Amino acid sequence: MFGYPILVFDIETVTDVKAGSQLYGLDLPLDDAQQALNKLRRQEAGTEFPRTPLHEIVCISGLWIDQDKFQLFSWSRENFSEIEILQKFVGIFEKKSPILVSWNGGQFDLPVIMYRCLYHGVTAANLFEQGDWNPQKRHNNYQNRYHARHTDLMDVLASFNIRNFQKLDDVAQILGYPGKRGLSGYHVADYVKQQQWLDLSCYCEGDVLNTWLIYLRWLLLRGFIQQAQHQDWIRHTILYLQQQPQHAEFLEIWQKTCLSTVFTQSDFN
């Protein structure tokens, strides 16, 4: 139906304290350096959210959809170093050329991945190819925001206008989906510090699932799928999640939130 495999993805990050300390000339214990970096960032930008090069990836989650596969996956720091996570992710694009789907992936996720590949010396030729070596990818690559090779839903739904950008959580809830279920990215550092790896991967996969559900609605809006196909995919997603115990809460909340709109009321019928 889609023509290509689809990869819906999301990343979770923490501050790279080592790189930040090097940048600002800090010689402090880890916790003190973290606090100092937070203070410096608040002074710079009014937020503790780090500059793009100072994000360290602790988890990449994805949903892979192909003719014979529908599978959630996560690679976290529980089992892999950051460089191994990057190598696994960019390795997908050496073997396949999926349609990439994200929420804010063009503004955040891919730039962070690019900087971390630079930091670790990881080659990601196909992911960051822009037509220099392959002319066919000059106007059909993962960096071009106006083509479907990478569909950044936040960007697309805003008509590529920053003033119209919306939060994933808000759009998901408006459309009758679970959203972040009261969680936020501020929990990520605590998950890592306390080694709550299942909570981390579930949180990241939750963002992936919300993005997937919004993407299905986007495909319906564009006429790429019809309503019957949309409902088939909704049922397929529900049946799959019923076999994933870690997402029982996501399903439970979805059963409630779907009642908030006429269009989604029949999701679980």
Automatic annotation (TrEMBL):
<dbReference type="GO" id="GO:0003676">
    <property type="term" value="F:nucleic acid binding"/>
</dbReference>
<dbReference type="Pfam" id="PF10108">
    <property type="entry name" value="DNA_pol_B_exo2"/>
</dbReference>
<dbReference type="InterPro" id="IPR012337">
    <property type="entry name" value="RNaseH-like_sf"/>
</dbReference>
<dbReference type="InterPro" id="IPR036397">
    <property type="entry name" value="RNaseH_sf"/>
</dbReference>
<feature type="domain" description="Predicted 3'-5' exonuclease PolB-like">
    <location>
        <begin position="48"/>
        <end position="255"/>
    </location>
</feature>
<protein>
    <recommendedName>
        <fullName>Predicted 3'-5' exonuclease PolB-like domain-containing protein</fullName>
    </recommendedName>
</protein>
<dbReference type="InterPro" id="IPR019288">
    <property type="entry name" value="3'-5'_exonuclease_PolB-like"/>
</dbReference>
